[in-house]
Here is the input.
Amino acid sequence: MLPADTLAGTDDASTQVFTVGEMLGCSCSVTKIKKCLECIKNLERQVSNLQNDLNTANTQIVNLQNNLNNANAAISNLQNDLINANDLKDAAEDASDAANTAK
Here is the structure.
């Protein structure tokens, strides 16, 4: 919010309030200063809400990245399990071949 002395001060300060208000899309004039300030306060609330939404979205992105990392780790573990299973299968086949040869 604009400092109180900016609002209560000289014509230059009033002009500054009007200029800032107009730049923010608020309808500002000497006769509408209260409405102008309400508009600016409303915009500040909207910005605050958007910042909260952005923080929430960033938290969700971090959570999704963690989920993806966990999924990739699980895939890696499954690949290792498959390699181990294939090694066991090959060893069993070798043992079977050796047993058949020994007959």
Summary: Residues 33-102 form the longest helix (70 residues).
